Amino acid sequence: MNLPTPASSPFAAAAISGHLDTRTAATEVAHDLYDHIGPNCDLLLIFASFHHRAAMAELGKELRNTIGPRVTLGITTESVLGVDQELEGLAGLSAIAFQLPGVELHPFRYEAQHHAGILKSRDAMRSHISLDDRLRSVILLGDPFSTPITRLLPAMTSCGGDEQPVPIMGGMLSGASQPGQNVMIFDDQTSPNGAIGVSISGDIDISMVVSQGCRPIGEPLIITNCQGNIVLELGGRKALDVVQDLTRNLDEDERSLLSGGLLTGMVINEYKDRFGRGDFLVRNMLGYDKKKRAIALGEMPRIGQTMQFHVRDAETADEDLRLLLDAQELKHSPFAAMLFTCNGRGARLFKQQHHDVSVIQDRLGEVPLAGFFAAGEIGPIGDTSFLHGHTAVLALLRGRSGSG
Fold it and tell me: In terms of CB atoms within 10 Å, which end of the chain has fewer, N or C?
């Protein structure tokens, strides 16, 4: 048998198994990866449904022994996706292996009892994730029960300073209903707590497509009065009055979308002349106060910030992903892709199997792809990375100068 030789340009292989028996699934995935990438692997990412929780250590060992990765990260999740499948609610094991010449990998862990201090020190965080001038992105995977993600993510994003926000992608593990049930693989170790990740630097380009699955309705409005997460006035008018006027003036199709709830989009970069898809951080509208004629948001707005209302449904989510991929088709083909999508998408939203991976392959070809259904997705809007919901975060990896 002729084995693949180490690549002179970046290369990746992905594999998936739906077998319920963990040993069989691991063997299938390991052999498939080996056939395509051989024993020369720099980074291995493993996504396993909760069905494989009890044997995660053995699963990781089988894959590591077969393809010999320098860095291995693995997690448990509700459902996995890879290649051309989304195995929702089924046993699934998905993995992607990379050969990355000219790329530096810096794996790291976060555990609250050992690393709490890095949340307060920019220099300590920079050192912890090995931030350098050639950083392209950070993959972050966290257990939602033991990771203070609302503090960790901003600290990590901002440690590069205002001129160099750290681009972060990934998601929160969805393979457990209570603390201690998730399992993470960090090279040859396993743990139920904290977060794991890897910083990627060097000769590689990483584009991130963040599809929040929404479209704006009405017109952009300026927040003229707010307190905490309560918006009192929009454009000098009582916020609830603005909402009621908006909903009355919607056409029949748009009004039907309100059954899924009214969402708010906060502009991230106010210096743009026009705002479109990808410029808004979308959050739920949590409620309203009839007496104050105010609305409550799932985000902390500020006076002077631009806001626009949004709606979401399957058709809109499909359209949003396709439109965002239009720009990626203008670039040279990626050699690999990772997809971190909400566990509220998939067949729950689209009423069909394999929607997101099918759209990606239709637009970008049969790129090696792996990922999982998350309990919160991490990806950038503008230059800042946020924790999202009902979102698909797609990372596309390309060699520099068209290589790969």
Answer: N
Helix H segments across 211-366?
A: 239-248, 252-257, 314-328, 346-350, 355-364
Going residue by residue through the chain, which has 404 residues, state the pLDDT in tens, using 9 for 90 and above: 444 545 578 999 999 999 999 999 999 999 999 999 998 899 999 999 999 999 999 999 999 999 999 999 999 999 999 999 999 999 999 999 999 999 999 999 999 888 888 999 999 999 999 999 999 999 999 999 999 999 999 999 999 877 789 999 999 999 998 999 999 999 999 999 999 999 999 999 999 999 998 888 888 999 999 999 999 999 999 999 999 999 888 877 777 777 667 899 999 888 777 877 778 899 988 999 999 999 999 889 999 999 999 988 888 889 889 999 998 988 899 999 999 999 989 888 888 899 999 999 999 999 999 999 999 999 999 889 999 988 999 999 999 864 44
- Helix and strand numbers (H, E) in the chain are 10, 25
Q: Which two three-digit tokens encode residue 343?
A: 């566990």
Distance in angstroms (rounded) separating the CA atoms of residues 222 and 378: 27
Can you tell me the distance from the alpha carbon of 160 to that of 403, in angstroms, rounded to the nearest whole number? 28
Tokens standing for 185? 């693989």
Whole-number Å distance between alpha carbons of 135 and 144 = 26
Helix (H) or strand (E) holding 32: helix 22-37
Strands 168-172 and 336-342: unpaired
CA distances from 8 to 4, 34, 43, 103, 337 (A): 12, 18, 16, 12, 19
